[in-house]
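Aim 2 progress update. The chain analyzed this quarter is reproduced below.
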Amino acid sequence: MTQRFGEVSQEISSQIEGLPLTDVEDLVKVFLSFKSWADLESWLEEHLN
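Predicted structure tokens:
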């Protein structure tokens, strides 16, 4: 993530660490399609709520 978008915020890091394994697997599949941190944040909002 840091190679693509730069430093990961503590908030995003904590959210990812709290995901169930199945959601982490889903995130790995879609991550390369993200254009910005905003895409990741939107994805996390959908999967954390």
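Residues 8 and 31 are 14 Å apart (CA to CA). Residues 2-48 form one domain. These observations will guide the mutagenesis experiments scheduled for the next reporting period.
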